[in-house]
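Objective 1b: paired records.
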Amino acid sequence: MSPDQRPDDTPRTSGAPCPGTPRAGTSRVGAARPGGPRSGVRRAARLLAAALLGPMLVACQPRAGETCVSWVDLADEQDRVEASGLVVDADVLGREGTRGMLGVDAHVWEVEVVDVVQDLAGTASAGDRLAVASTPQTCGGGDLYPDGDPLDADGTVRLYLTDDHQLPVEGEGWSLITPFDGVAPAP
Protein backbone atom coordinates (compact mmCIF):
# COMPACT_ATOMS: atom_id res chain seq x y z
CA MET A 1 0.00 0.00 0.00
CA SER A 2 1.34 3.43 -0.87
CA PRO A 3 1.54 6.19 1.78
CA ASP A 4 -1.23 7.97 -0.15
CA GLN A 5 -3.70 5.09 0.29
CA ARG A 6 -5.85 4.10 3.26
CA PRO A 7 -6.30 0.41 4.09
CA ASP A 8 -9.71 0.53 2.33
CA ASP A 9 -8.01 1.86 -0.85
CA THR A 10 -9.69 5.26 -0.59
CA PRO A 11 -7.24 7.91 -1.78
CA ARG A 12 -6.17 10.39 0.91
CA THR A 13 -6.44 14.07 0.17
CA SER A 14 -2.78 14.64 1.02
CA GLY A 15 0.36 12.57 1.18
CA ALA A 16 0.54 12.84 4.99
CA PRO A 17 -0.04 9.70 7.02
CA CYS A 18 -3.05 9.43 9.32
CA PRO A 19 -2.61 11.40 12.55
CA GLY A 20 -0.83 9.37 15.20
CA THR A 21 0.60 6.92 12.66
CA PRO A 22 4.41 6.87 12.44
CA ARG A 23 5.85 7.27 8.96
CA ALA A 24 7.54 4.25 7.44
CA GLY A 25 10.99 3.72 8.94
CA THR A 26 10.33 5.90 12.00
CA SER A 27 9.07 5.27 15.48
CA ARG A 28 7.66 7.47 18.22
CA VAL A 29 9.78 7.75 21.32
CA GLY A 30 8.05 5.98 24.19
CA ALA A 31 5.41 4.45 21.92
CA ALA A 32 4.06 1.14 23.04
CA ARG A 33 5.03 -1.63 20.72
CA PRO A 34 2.71 -4.55 20.13
CA GLY A 35 3.44 -7.07 22.86
CA GLY A 36 5.57 -4.53 24.75
CA PRO A 37 5.19 -3.86 28.47
CA ARG A 38 3.02 -0.73 28.04
CA SER A 39 0.68 -2.04 25.33
CA GLY A 40 -1.46 -3.93 27.86
CA VAL A 41 -1.74 -0.90 30.13
CA ARG A 42 -2.77 1.39 27.28
CA ARG A 43 -5.26 -1.16 25.99
CA ALA A 44 -6.77 -1.48 29.47
CA ALA A 45 -6.96 2.33 29.77
CA ARG A 46 -8.71 2.58 26.39
CA LEU A 47 -11.20 -0.13 27.36
CA LEU A 48 -11.88 1.55 30.70
CA ALA A 49 -12.42 4.93 29.01
CA ALA A 50 -14.77 3.36 26.46
CA ALA A 51 -16.72 1.58 29.21
CA LEU A 52 -17.11 4.79 31.22
CA LEU A 53 -17.72 7.26 28.38
CA GLY A 54 -19.66 5.03 25.98
CA PRO A 55 -22.99 5.07 27.88
CA MET A 56 -22.80 8.86 28.28
CA LEU A 57 -22.25 9.35 24.56
CA VAL A 58 -25.10 7.00 23.69
CA ALA A 59 -27.33 8.81 26.19
CA CYS A 60 -26.86 12.05 24.25
CA GLN A 61 -28.15 10.55 21.01
CA PRO A 62 -31.80 11.08 20.04
CA ARG A 63 -34.06 8.06 19.77
CA ALA A 64 -35.01 6.94 16.26
CA GLY A 65 -37.59 9.37 14.87
CA GLU A 66 -37.24 11.75 17.82
CA THR A 67 -37.29 15.49 17.12
CA CYS A 68 -34.85 17.55 19.17
CA VAL A 69 -36.15 20.97 20.12
CA SER A 70 -34.36 23.96 21.60
CA TRP A 71 -37.12 25.55 23.68
CA VAL A 72 -37.54 29.29 24.03
CA ASP A 73 -37.47 30.58 27.62
CA LEU A 74 -40.92 31.86 28.55
CA ALA A 75 -40.21 32.60 32.21
CA ASP A 76 -42.31 35.80 32.16
CA GLU A 77 -46.09 35.41 32.69
CA GLN A 78 -46.89 37.75 29.79
CA ASP A 79 -44.66 35.75 27.41
CA ARG A 80 -46.36 32.49 28.43
CA VAL A 81 -49.84 33.96 27.91
CA GLU A 82 -48.88 35.39 24.49
CA ALA A 83 -47.50 32.00 23.39
CA SER A 84 -50.70 30.18 24.45
CA GLY A 85 -53.98 29.62 22.70
CA LEU A 86 -55.59 28.63 25.98
CA VAL A 87 -54.68 29.52 29.55
CA VAL A 88 -56.70 27.87 32.30
CA ASP A 89 -56.58 27.21 35.99
CA ALA A 90 -57.34 23.50 36.27
CA ASP A 91 -57.27 20.47 38.52
CA VAL A 92 -55.27 17.54 37.15
CA LEU A 93 -57.46 14.45 37.50
CA GLY A 94 -55.00 11.78 36.32
CA ARG A 95 -53.09 10.25 33.45
CA GLU A 96 -55.19 8.88 30.64
CA GLY A 97 -52.66 7.58 28.13
CA THR A 98 -50.10 8.82 25.62
CA ARG A 99 -49.97 10.78 22.37
CA GLY A 100 -47.20 10.73 19.78
CA MET A 101 -45.35 14.01 20.02
CA LEU A 102 -41.89 14.96 18.74
CA GLY A 103 -41.27 11.31 17.84
CA VAL A 104 -41.91 9.96 21.37
CA ASP A 105 -44.96 8.98 23.44
CA ALA A 106 -45.89 12.00 25.54
CA HIS A 107 -48.02 11.52 28.66
CA VAL A 108 -51.63 12.69 28.31
CA TRP A 109 -53.50 13.91 31.38
CA GLU A 110 -57.17 14.63 32.01
CA VAL A 111 -57.72 18.06 33.58
CA GLU A 112 -60.86 19.83 34.74
CA VAL A 113 -61.07 23.54 34.01
CA VAL A 114 -61.70 25.67 37.11
CA ASP A 115 -61.30 29.08 35.47
CA VAL A 116 -60.53 30.31 31.94
CA VAL A 117 -57.88 33.03 31.86
CA GLN A 118 -57.51 33.27 28.06
CA ASP A 119 -59.22 31.32 25.30
CA LEU A 120 -58.41 32.58 21.80
CA ALA A 121 -60.71 30.05 20.15
CA GLY A 122 -63.59 30.37 22.64
CA THR A 123 -63.75 26.61 23.17
CA ALA A 124 -63.29 26.12 26.93
CA SER A 125 -65.32 26.96 30.00
CA ALA A 126 -65.30 26.12 33.70
CA GLY A 127 -66.18 22.48 34.32
CA ASP A 128 -64.86 21.23 30.95
CA ARG A 129 -62.57 18.23 30.95
CA LEU A 130 -59.62 18.40 28.57
CA ALA A 131 -56.98 15.89 27.48
CA VAL A 132 -53.61 17.65 27.72
CA ALA A 133 -50.31 16.24 26.47
CA SER A 134 -47.34 16.96 28.69
CA THR A 135 -44.78 18.25 26.17
CA PRO A 136 -41.62 16.14 26.57
CA GLN A 137 -38.08 17.53 26.72
CA THR A 138 -36.68 15.05 24.14
CA CYS A 139 -33.05 14.32 23.35
CA GLY A 140 -32.12 14.14 27.00
CA GLY A 141 -30.92 10.61 26.56
CA GLY A 142 -33.49 8.73 28.54
CA ASP A 143 -36.29 10.06 30.67
CA LEU A 144 -38.68 12.38 28.80
CA TYR A 145 -39.38 14.18 32.07
CA PRO A 146 -36.05 14.19 33.96
CA ASP A 147 -37.35 16.71 36.52
CA GLY A 148 -40.70 14.90 36.78
CA ASP A 149 -43.78 15.29 34.61
CA PRO A 150 -45.02 18.86 35.15
CA LEU A 151 -48.65 17.70 34.94
CA ASP A 152 -48.15 15.23 37.77
CA ALA A 153 -49.45 17.89 40.15
CA ASP A 154 -51.82 18.13 43.09
CA GLY A 155 -54.32 20.94 43.48
CA THR A 156 -55.19 23.68 41.03
CA VAL A 157 -52.47 24.76 38.60
CA ARG A 158 -52.29 27.29 35.79
CA LEU A 159 -51.83 25.64 32.38
CA TYR A 160 -50.44 27.39 29.31
CA LEU A 161 -51.65 25.36 26.35
CA THR A 162 -51.43 25.27 22.58
CA ASP A 163 -53.13 23.28 19.85
CA ASP A 164 -51.27 25.13 17.08
CA HIS A 165 -48.69 22.42 16.60
CA GLN A 166 -45.84 23.44 14.36
CA LEU A 167 -43.93 20.44 15.73
CA PRO A 168 -44.50 16.76 14.87
CA VAL A 169 -47.61 15.68 16.83
CA GLU A 170 -49.90 12.73 16.21
CA GLY A 171 -53.57 13.63 16.53
CA GLU A 172 -55.40 16.68 17.76
CA GLY A 173 -55.52 18.19 21.19
CA TRP A 174 -53.98 20.51 23.70
CA SER A 175 -50.41 20.33 24.93
CA LEU A 176 -48.19 22.39 27.20
CA ILE A 177 -46.49 25.27 25.34
CA THR A 178 -43.05 23.98 26.44
CA PRO A 179 -41.82 21.29 28.82
CA PHE A 180 -40.58 24.01 31.17
CA ASP A 181 -43.15 26.82 31.09
CA GLY A 182 -46.49 25.05 30.57
CA VAL A 183 -47.45 24.68 34.24
CA ALA A 184 -47.34 27.21 37.06
CA PRO A 185 -49.00 27.53 40.46
CA ALA A 186 -52.50 28.98 40.18
CA PRO A 187 -52.72 32.44 41.76
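Objective 1b, second protein:
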Amino acid sequence: MKGKSENVEFQIGIDLFSVFDNFVEVRQRPHDPKPLRGRTVRSYKQARDAFQIALRRSTDGLSLKRMVADVIDEKLKSGTMTATGMNVYIRALNSFFSWCYDMGHLSGRIKIALIEVERRKRPKVLSDDGIQNWKQFRATTLSQLRAQCLALLILDTGLRIEECLGLRETDLDWTGDRLWVKGKGGSNREAPVSTEGRKLLKRYIATTVAFRAGEDSFVFSTKSGKPLSYRNSLRDLKSIAKRLNAEWVGWHSLRRTFATAYLKNGGVLTDLQEILGHADTRTTLLYLGKNIDDIVDNHDQRSPLAVSHKRRSKSRAAHADHLNNIGSALAIRFRQRR
Protein backbone atom coordinates (compact mmCIF):
# COMPACT_ATOMS: atom_id res chain seq x y z
CA MET A 1 0.00 0.00 0.00
CA LYS A 2 1.63 3.14 -1.17
CA GLY A 3 2.06 5.60 1.66
CA LYS A 4 0.41 3.25 4.19
CA SER A 5 2.63 1.29 6.55
CA GLU A 6 1.64 -2.12 7.86
CA ASN A 7 1.23 -2.66 11.59
CA VAL A 8 0.42 -6.19 12.74
CA GLU A 9 0.97 -5.65 16.47
CA PHE A 10 -2.68 -5.36 17.43
CA GLN A 11 -5.31 -7.51 19.09
CA ILE A 12 -8.34 -8.94 17.28
CA GLY A 13 -11.49 -8.98 19.38
CA ILE A 14 -14.03 -10.17 16.80
CA ASP A 15 -14.76 -13.22 14.65
CA LEU A 16 -13.46 -12.07 11.25
CA PHE A 17 -15.17 -14.98 9.51
CA SER A 18 -18.64 -13.78 10.56
CA VAL A 19 -17.80 -10.19 9.57
CA PHE A 20 -16.78 -11.28 6.06
CA ASP A 21 -20.38 -11.76 4.92
CA ASN A 22 -21.20 -8.21 5.94
CA PHE A 23 -18.18 -7.00 3.94
CA VAL A 24 -19.35 -8.84 0.80
CA GLU A 25 -22.90 -7.53 1.22
CA VAL A 26 -21.71 -3.92 1.60
CA ARG A 27 -19.39 -4.21 -1.41
CA GLN A 28 -22.33 -5.23 -3.62
CA ARG A 29 -24.31 -2.05 -2.95
CA PRO A 30 -24.70 0.38 -5.88
CA HIS A 31 -23.02 3.26 -4.03
CA ASP A 32 -19.74 1.32 -3.77
CA PRO A 33 -17.13 2.79 -6.17
CA LYS A 34 -16.56 -0.69 -7.63
CA PRO A 35 -19.47 -2.92 -6.59
CA LEU A 36 -18.78 -6.65 -6.59
CA ARG A 37 -20.61 -8.75 -9.19
CA GLY A 38 -21.27 -12.38 -10.03
CA ARG A 39 -18.05 -14.35 -10.26
CA THR A 40 -16.15 -11.88 -8.05
CA VAL A 41 -18.65 -12.39 -5.23
CA ARG A 42 -18.25 -16.16 -5.59
CA SER A 43 -14.44 -15.95 -5.51
CA TYR A 44 -14.57 -13.72 -2.39
CA LYS A 45 -16.77 -16.25 -0.60
CA GLN A 46 -14.47 -19.08 -1.67
CA ALA A 47 -11.54 -17.13 -0.22
CA ARG A 48 -13.47 -16.72 3.03
CA ASP A 49 -14.06 -20.48 3.25
CA ALA A 50 -10.48 -21.35 2.30
CA PHE A 51 -9.11 -19.22 5.16
CA GLN A 52 -11.90 -19.98 7.62
CA ILE A 53 -9.59 -21.29 10.35
CA ALA A 54 -7.31 -18.25 10.18
CA LEU A 55 -10.24 -15.83 10.23
CA ARG A 56 -11.94 -17.58 13.17
CA ARG A 57 -8.97 -18.38 15.45
CA SER A 58 -6.60 -15.43 15.04
CA THR A 59 -6.25 -13.34 18.18
CA ASP A 60 -3.85 -10.70 16.87
CA GLY A 61 -2.31 -9.41 13.65
CA LEU A 62 0.80 -11.56 13.89
CA SER A 63 -1.13 -14.80 14.37
CA LEU A 64 -3.47 -13.82 11.52
CA LYS A 65 -0.57 -13.38 9.08
CA ARG A 66 1.08 -16.59 10.27
CA MET A 67 -2.10 -18.68 9.96
CA VAL A 68 -2.91 -17.24 6.54
CA ALA A 69 0.64 -18.10 5.40
CA ASP A 70 0.18 -21.66 6.71
CA VAL A 71 -3.02 -22.10 4.68
CA ILE A 72 -1.32 -20.76 1.55
CA ASP A 73 1.67 -23.11 1.95
CA GLU A 74 -0.56 -26.12 2.60
CA LYS A 75 -2.77 -25.56 -0.43
CA LEU A 76 0.15 -24.90 -2.76
CA LYS A 77 2.14 -27.91 -1.59
CA SER A 78 -0.87 -30.23 -1.82
CA GLY A 79 -1.59 -29.01 -5.35
CA THR A 80 -5.20 -28.13 -4.55
CA MET A 81 -4.58 -24.57 -5.78
CA THR A 82 -2.28 -22.89 -8.27
CA ALA A 83 -0.28 -19.76 -7.43
CA THR A 84 -2.47 -17.74 -9.79
CA GLY A 85 -5.67 -18.97 -8.18
CA MET A 86 -4.25 -18.32 -4.71
CA ASN A 87 -3.45 -14.73 -5.68
CA VAL A 88 -7.15 -14.22 -6.44
CA TYR A 89 -7.94 -15.27 -2.86
CA ILE A 90 -5.13 -13.12 -1.43
CA ARG A 91 -6.48 -10.05 -3.21
CA ALA A 92 -9.90 -10.77 -1.72
CA LEU A 93 -8.37 -11.06 1.77
CA ASN A 94 -6.42 -7.82 1.37
CA SER A 95 -9.56 -6.01 0.28
CA PHE A 96 -11.37 -7.41 3.32
CA PHE A 97 -8.59 -6.45 5.74
CA SER A 98 -8.47 -2.91 4.33
CA TRP A 99 -12.25 -2.60 4.78
CA CYS A 100 -11.99 -3.93 8.35
CA TYR A 101 -9.39 -1.27 9.16
CA ASP A 102 -11.56 1.50 7.66
CA MET A 103 -14.59 0.25 9.61
CA GLY A 104 -12.65 0.01 12.89
CA HIS A 105 -12.82 -3.78 13.14
CA LEU A 106 -9.01 -3.94 13.00
CA SER A 107 -6.80 -1.41 14.79
CA GLY A 108 -3.85 -1.96 12.46
CA ARG A 109 -3.21 -2.42 8.76
CA ILE A 110 -2.37 -5.82 7.36
CA LYS A 111 -1.51 -6.93 3.85
CA ILE A 112 -0.66 -10.38 2.52
CA ALA A 113 2.04 -10.46 -0.16
CA LEU A 114 1.07 -11.90 -3.52
CA ILE A 115 2.85 -14.97 -4.83
CA GLU A 116 5.26 -14.40 -7.69
CA VAL A 117 3.98 -16.11 -10.81
CA GLU A 118 5.09 -16.32 -14.41
CA ARG A 119 3.51 -13.60 -16.48
CA ARG A 120 0.59 -15.20 -18.26
CA LYS A 121 0.53 -15.33 -22.00
CA ARG A 122 -1.83 -13.02 -23.79
CA PRO A 123 -4.84 -14.65 -25.45
CA LYS A 124 -4.41 -15.67 -29.06
CA VAL A 125 -5.92 -13.63 -31.88
CA LEU A 126 -7.99 -15.04 -34.71
CA SER A 127 -6.60 -14.79 -38.23
CA ASP A 128 -8.70 -13.37 -41.08
CA ASP A 129 -9.41 -16.93 -42.21
CA GLY A 130 -10.42 -17.84 -38.67
CA ILE A 131 -12.92 -14.98 -38.56
CA GLN A 132 -14.36 -16.07 -41.91
CA ASN A 133 -14.79 -19.62 -40.61
CA TRP A 134 -16.88 -18.35 -37.70
CA LYS A 135 -18.97 -16.18 -40.03
CA GLN A 136 -19.62 -19.03 -42.46
CA PHE A 137 -20.40 -21.70 -39.85
CA ARG A 138 -23.86 -23.23 -40.35
CA ALA A 139 -25.52 -23.68 -36.96
CA THR A 140 -28.05 -26.51 -36.64
CA THR A 141 -29.05 -26.15 -32.96
CA LEU A 142 -30.00 -23.30 -30.65
CA SER A 143 -26.80 -23.67 -28.64
CA GLN A 144 -24.68 -23.46 -31.80
CA LEU A 145 -26.61 -20.46 -33.13
CA ARG A 146 -26.34 -18.71 -29.77
CA ALA A 147 -22.59 -19.34 -29.43
CA GLN A 148 -21.95 -18.22 -33.02
CA CYS A 149 -23.92 -15.02 -32.51
CA LEU A 150 -22.07 -14.32 -29.24
CA ALA A 151 -18.71 -14.86 -30.94
CA LEU A 152 -19.54 -12.58 -33.88
CA LEU A 153 -21.01 -9.94 -31.58
CA ILE A 154 -17.76 -9.80 -29.58
CA LEU A 155 -15.77 -9.62 -32.83
CA ASP A 156 -17.96 -6.66 -33.84
CA THR A 157 -18.16 -4.76 -30.55
CA GLY A 158 -15.32 -5.98 -28.30
CA LEU A 159 -17.73 -6.63 -25.41
CA ARG A 160 -16.78 -8.91 -22.54
CA ILE A 161 -18.66 -12.22 -22.56
CA GLU A 162 -20.27 -11.31 -19.20
CA GLU A 163 -21.55 -8.08 -20.75
CA CYS A 164 -23.04 -10.00 -23.68
CA LEU A 165 -24.75 -12.51 -21.40
CA GLY A 166 -26.27 -9.63 -19.40
CA LEU A 167 -27.79 -7.91 -22.44
CA ARG A 168 -31.57 -7.50 -22.50
CA GLU A 169 -33.66 -6.57 -25.52
CA THR A 170 -34.27 -3.13 -24.01
CA ASP A 171 -30.49 -2.54 -24.10
CA LEU A 172 -30.47 -2.64 -27.92
CA ASP A 173 -30.79 0.80 -29.51
CA TRP A 174 -31.59 0.00 -33.13
CA THR A 175 -31.91 3.61 -34.26
CA GLY A 176 -28.71 4.72 -32.53
CA ASP A 177 -26.60 1.74 -33.63
CA ARG A 178 -25.42 1.12 -30.08
CA LEU A 179 -25.81 -1.19 -27.11
CA TRP A 180 -26.34 -0.10 -23.52
CA VAL A 181 -23.89 -2.17 -21.52
CA LYS A 182 -23.50 -2.79 -17.80
CA GLY A 183 -19.75 -3.16 -17.57
CA LYS A 184 -17.12 -4.29 -15.12
CA GLY A 185 -17.53 -2.91 -11.61
CA GLY A 186 -21.13 -1.88 -12.28
CA SER A 187 -20.21 0.95 -14.66
CA ASN A 188 -22.52 1.62 -17.59
CA ARG A 189 -21.49 2.63 -21.09
CA GLU A 190 -22.63 2.77 -24.70
CA ALA A 191 -20.98 0.41 -27.17
CA PRO A 192 -21.26 1.00 -30.93
CA VAL A 193 -22.44 -1.83 -33.17
CA SER A 194 -21.83 -1.99 -36.92
CA THR A 195 -24.50 -2.36 -39.59
CA GLU A 196 -23.56 -6.03 -39.98
CA GLY A 197 -23.65 -6.50 -36.22
CA ARG A 198 -27.12 -4.97 -36.05
CA LYS A 199 -28.35 -7.30 -38.80
CA LEU A 200 -26.82 -10.26 -36.96
CA LEU A 201 -28.64 -9.40 -33.73
CA LYS A 202 -31.96 -8.80 -35.47
CA ARG A 203 -31.79 -12.16 -37.23
CA TYR A 204 -30.89 -13.92 -34.00
CA ILE A 205 -33.70 -12.28 -32.03
CA ALA A 206 -36.25 -13.08 -34.75
CA THR A 207 -35.11 -16.70 -34.85
CA THR A 208 -35.14 -17.22 -31.07
CA VAL A 209 -38.21 -15.11 -30.14
CA ALA A 210 -40.06 -18.22 -28.91
CA PHE A 211 -37.53 -18.65 -26.07
CA ARG A 212 -37.99 -15.20 -24.57
CA ALA A 213 -40.89 -13.69 -22.64
CA GLY A 214 -41.24 -9.95 -23.19
CA GLU A 215 -38.96 -7.14 -24.32
CA ASP A 216 -37.03 -7.04 -21.05
CA SER A 217 -35.85 -10.65 -21.33
CA PHE A 218 -32.23 -11.65 -21.84
CA VAL A 219 -31.06 -11.69 -25.46
CA PHE A 220 -28.95 -14.82 -24.95
CA SER A 221 -31.20 -17.04 -22.87
CA THR A 222 -31.72 -20.76 -22.53
CA LYS A 223 -34.72 -22.58 -24.03
CA SER A 224 -36.58 -21.94 -20.78
CA GLY A 225 -35.89 -18.19 -20.98
CA LYS A 226 -33.33 -18.17 -18.17
CA PRO A 227 -30.01 -16.30 -18.54
CA LEU A 228 -27.22 -18.37 -20.06
CA SER A 229 -24.36 -19.17 -17.68
CA TYR A 230 -20.72 -18.45 -18.49
CA ARG A 231 -19.82 -22.12 -18.14
CA ASN A 232 -22.47 -23.25 -20.64
CA SER A 233 -21.53 -20.51 -23.08
CA LEU A 234 -17.91 -21.67 -22.98
CA ARG A 235 -19.00 -25.26 -23.54
CA ASP A 236 -20.92 -24.19 -26.66
CA LEU A 237 -17.94 -22.18 -27.93
CA LYS A 238 -15.62 -25.17 -27.56
CA SER A 239 -18.13 -27.35 -29.41
CA ILE A 240 -18.15 -25.08 -32.47
CA ALA A 241 -14.36 -24.70 -32.43
CA LYS A 242 -14.10 -28.50 -32.51
CA ARG A 243 -16.49 -28.75 -35.47
CA LEU A 244 -14.47 -26.10 -37.31
CA ASN A 245 -11.26 -28.01 -36.60
CA ALA A 246 -9.98 -24.67 -35.37
CA GLU A 247 -7.23 -23.97 -32.89
CA TRP A 248 -8.93 -23.34 -29.56
CA VAL A 249 -9.55 -19.73 -28.56
CA GLY A 250 -11.60 -18.40 -25.63
CA TRP A 251 -14.07 -15.56 -25.33
CA HIS A 252 -11.30 -13.14 -24.38
CA SER A 253 -9.38 -14.05 -27.53
CA LEU A 254 -12.32 -12.76 -29.57
CA ARG A 255 -12.32 -9.49 -27.61
CA ARG A 256 -8.59 -9.10 -28.21
CA THR A 257 -9.07 -9.94 -31.90
CA PHE A 258 -11.53 -7.04 -32.13
CA ALA A 259 -9.12 -4.68 -30.35
CA THR A 260 -6.09 -5.47 -32.52
CA ALA A 261 -8.12 -5.37 -35.75
CA TYR A 262 -9.71 -2.06 -34.74
CA LEU A 263 -6.32 -0.36 -34.40
CA LYS A 264 -4.86 -2.09 -37.44
CA ASN A 265 -7.78 -0.79 -39.51
CA GLY A 266 -7.02 2.80 -38.50
CA GLY A 267 -8.95 3.12 -35.23
CA VAL A 268 -7.84 5.54 -32.51
CA LEU A 269 -6.50 4.19 -29.22
CA THR A 270 -8.63 6.49 -27.04
CA ASP A 271 -11.76 5.47 -28.97
CA LEU A 272 -10.86 1.83 -28.46
CA GLN A 273 -10.38 2.47 -24.74
CA GLU A 274 -13.92 3.88 -24.56
CA ILE A 275 -15.39 0.99 -26.53
CA LEU A 276 -13.68 -1.66 -24.37
CA GLY A 277 -14.66 0.09 -21.15
CA HIS A 278 -11.11 0.52 -19.83
CA ALA A 279 -10.38 3.18 -17.23
CA ASP A 280 -6.75 3.45 -18.37
CA THR A 281 -5.20 3.34 -21.84
CA ARG A 282 -2.39 1.21 -20.39
CA THR A 283 -4.91 -1.61 -19.99
CA THR A 284 -5.95 -1.16 -23.60
CA LEU A 285 -2.32 -1.34 -24.74
CA LEU A 286 -1.99 -4.75 -23.09
CA TYR A 287 -4.43 -6.09 -25.67
CA LEU A 288 -1.98 -5.40 -28.46
CA GLY A 289 0.68 -7.92 -27.50
CA LYS A 290 3.00 -8.59 -30.44
CA ASN A 291 0.77 -6.48 -32.63
CA ILE A 292 2.53 -3.42 -31.23
CA ASP A 293 5.12 -4.31 -33.90
CA ASP A 294 2.61 -3.29 -36.55
CA ILE A 295 2.25 0.11 -34.91
CA VAL A 296 6.02 0.52 -34.66
CA ASP A 297 6.48 -0.47 -38.30
CA ASN A 298 3.91 2.12 -39.40
CA HIS A 299 5.12 4.86 -37.08
CA ASP A 300 7.11 6.62 -39.79
CA GLN A 301 3.86 7.00 -41.76
CA ARG A 302 2.07 8.57 -38.75
CA SER A 303 4.67 10.75 -37.02
CA PRO A 304 4.53 14.42 -38.13
CA LEU A 305 8.29 14.67 -37.59
CA ALA A 306 9.04 11.64 -39.77
CA VAL A 307 6.52 12.67 -42.41
CA SER A 308 7.88 16.23 -42.64
CA HIS A 309 11.43 14.83 -42.84
CA LYS A 310 10.40 12.53 -45.68
CA ARG A 311 8.79 15.47 -47.47
CA ARG A 312 11.98 17.52 -47.10
CA SER A 313 14.09 14.59 -48.25
CA LYS A 314 11.78 14.04 -51.16
CA SER A 315 11.85 17.73 -52.11
CA ARG A 316 15.64 17.78 -51.80
CA ALA A 317 15.91 14.71 -54.00
CA ALA A 318 13.56 16.31 -56.52
CA HIS A 319 15.61 19.51 -56.43
CA ALA A 320 18.82 17.53 -56.98
CA ASP A 321 17.23 15.69 -59.91
CA HIS A 322 16.10 19.02 -61.32
CA LEU A 323 19.65 20.39 -61.09
CA ASN A 324 21.03 17.24 -62.68
CA ASN A 325 18.54 17.55 -65.53
CA ILE A 326 19.52 21.18 -66.08
CA GLY A 327 23.19 20.24 -66.02
CA SER A 328 22.64 17.46 -68.56
CA ALA A 329 20.68 19.77 -70.84
CA LEU A 330 23.43 22.43 -70.72
CA ALA A 331 26.08 19.82 -71.43
CA ILE A 332 24.16 18.59 -74.50
CA ARG A 333 23.70 22.14 -75.80
CA PHE A 334 27.40 22.87 -75.24
CA ARG A 335 28.41 19.76 -77.23
CA GLN A 336 26.04 20.71 -80.04
CA ARG A 337 27.60 24.18 -80.32
CA ARG A 338 31.03 22.68 -80.65
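The first helix runs from residue 16 to 27. The chain is about 60% helix and 5% strand.
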